[in-house]
Specification:
Blueprint: H1 5-15, E1 20-21, H2 24-28, H3 36-41, E2 47-50, H4 54-67, E3 71-74, E4 91-94, E5 101-105, E6 110-113, H5 119-127, E7 131-132, H6 145-151, H7 158-161, E8 168-174, E9 180-182, H8 199-203, E10 212-219, E11 221-222, E12 226-234, H9 237-249, E13 256-261, H10 262-271, E14 282-290, H11 292-307, E15 312-316, H12 319-335, E16 344-345, E17 352-353, H13 359-373, E18 377-382, E19 387-394, H14 399-418, H15 437-441, H16 443-455
Parallel strand pairs: 2-4, 3-4
Antiparallel strand pairs: 1-2, 5-6, 6-10, 7-11, 8-9, 8-10, 12-14, 12-15, 13-14, 13-18, 16-19, 17-19, 18-19
Helix pairs in contact: 1-4, 9-11, 9-13, 10-12, 13-14
Length: about 475
């Protein structure tokens, strides 16, 4: 679409020239996120603005609502589902300038932050006071809290600490009309409340389709005194899956349980040879935390369970050794592309979640799908809650390989649903998984569309995402 000179002048006046980016060179930088779909299409917005205050967000949304201009909120752009791209044109609203800690009330275990603050930066500040915000996405050094709220992000420690929504006490949200709403109580500093509808919960995971978050009141927790790690290698995927079930049955409660399949182990060794990981069908990483005696007890107990079927087991609570062992899991996302020369890892079909006792079956099926299309797939993830990240590796210059990987992603998504799982455990729906929402959500999707229509009757706020407007745009 084309924005009139009058609209452009009004927007520039709202944000100031320094935060107003009409030039194509600037707009191209916002044409994609990490997803393959957006990388292939490059949806260039008509305008990019960086907002610095709630009042600026409100003024722009009020103007956009009046002029019927789409607005797409965006944080760091680390998303993997084409959720923060302007595929229908309009304005990209960059919230990374709103990155402050508004207040810290650690006596009441909470902080107020702006949406543009980076996750790792927040936890660095909290750590100095002995606290932390538990959800820990792999993109911690880049992703923003606003994006985490919008996608209900989680990460490695979700098996014990849960997802973002469990820590959101209240939000300041600008609605599509420009009206400003505070959820969770306009003056509240309470750690819980059942006053009124749960509008906080409604906004969490809505991917910027119902409102734009401008402040976040977060619950934080004391840092655990000690952490320990158990690493085990298995000759059979099924044995690794069984061990996880047995650990829970023993009433052990790790803070994280991660899995890497054989291809992921191989990729990590190629990327960082000094790891010298043994060849195996599966590698499990268990993290435990708490008091030193409890960490030692849990680590030994988990090791004993693993030793029944594992080829090799090691546990440690030494911080240096712990960091070394975690490194294998930490590098696998970046390492995946190493397994095929001249190729790259693409983000498509990368976030399924299945019941824990079906993880091994899902991993086997992913391997079969990769072999069927002759495309290597590196798979790893959070086996403690069944969340798997499949990483196809292709030459993106080859149209035939692009078509193959689209079919691979479709089969992986349908497999997840057939295994009574979900197409997305933590990355979100966006455009990439919109086509599966009818099958996955059923009548709930119709209710979601009614809510969207009530709050955003002109369908201007992040339109087209999550299948909320009854259709998925065709790819170029």
């Amino acid at each position: 679409m084309t924005l009139s000179k009058n609209i452009l002048n009004k927007i520039e006046k709202i944000v100031g020239r320094e935060n107003y980016f009409p030039a194509e060179a600037d707009r191209i930088c916002y044409a994609a996120d990490s997803s393959m779909l957006s990388q292939m299409n490059k949806w260039v917005p008509d305008l990019v603005v960086r907002v610095m205050t709630t009042e600026q967000v409100s003024a722009i949304l009020a103007l956009a609502n009046e002029e019927k201009v789409p607005v797409v909120p965006r944080g760091a752009g680390t998303g993997q589902c084409s959720g923060a791209v302007a595929h229908q044109g309009g304005i990209i609203m960059d919230l990374t300038g709103m990155k402050g800690i508004v207040s810290m009330d650690l006596d009441n275990m909470q902080v107020m932050v702006q949406p543009g603050i980076v996750h790792a930066d927040l936890n660095k500040e909290l750590a100095a006071h002995g606290f932390f915000f538990p959800p820990d996405p792999g993109s911690t050094k880049m992703c923003t809290l606003g994006g985490m709220v919008s996608n209900n992000s989680s990460g490695q420690r979700s098996v014990k600490y849960g997802t973002t929504k469990q820590y959101i006490l209240g939000l300041e949200v600008v609605l599509p009309t420009g009206e400003i709403m505070v959820t969770g109580g306009v003056r509240s500093r309470a750690l819980k409340s059942v006053a009124g509808y749960d509008l906080t919960g409604l906004m969490i995971g809505s991917e910027g389709t119902l409102g734009i978050v401008t402040r976040i009141r977060l619950k934080v927790l004391p840092l655990p005194e000690k952490r320990g790690l158990v690493v085990a290698f298995f000759d059979k995927l099924e044995a690794a899956g069984d061990v996880v079930v047995q650990v829970f049955r023993r009433r052990l409660f790790p803070s994280a349980i991660e899995i890497m399949d054989q291809s992921a182990i191989h990729a990590a060794n190629l990327y960082k040879p000094e790891l010298a990981l043994p060849d195996a069908e599966a590698m499990l990483v268990f993290e435990v935390d708490g008091s030193p005696p409890d960490v030692a007890y849990q680590a030994r107990a988990i090791s004993a369970v693993c030793e029944q079927t594992a080829r090799k087991v090691e546990w440690t609570d030494n911080p240096d050794r712990l960091a070394t062992l975690w490194a294998a899991r930490g590098v696998v996302g970046a390492a995946a592309g190493r397994i095929k020369e001249g190729a790259t890892r693409v983000y498509i079909g990368e976030d399924i979640c299945v019941p824990v006792n079906r993880v091994a079956q899902a991993l086997r099926t992913i391997q079969t799908i990769g072999a069927k299309y002759d495309v290597p797939i590196v798979t790893y993830g959070h086996i403690g809650d069944g969340n798997l990240h499949a990483a196809p590796v292709i030459d993106t210059r080859e149209p035939a390989e692009i078509e193959k990987v689209k079919k691979i992603a479709d089969e992986i998504h349908h497999m997840a649903l057939d295994l009574e799982g979900t197409t997305t455990g933590e990355h979100g729906v966006g455009l990439t998984r919109a086509e599966y929402m009818e099958e996955e959500l059923g009548f709930s999707l119709q209710v979601m569309r009614r809510i969207k229509g009530l709050l955003d009757p002109h369908n201007l706020l992040n339109p087209g995402k999550m299948s909320l407007d009854d259709g998925v745009p065709a790819e170029k």
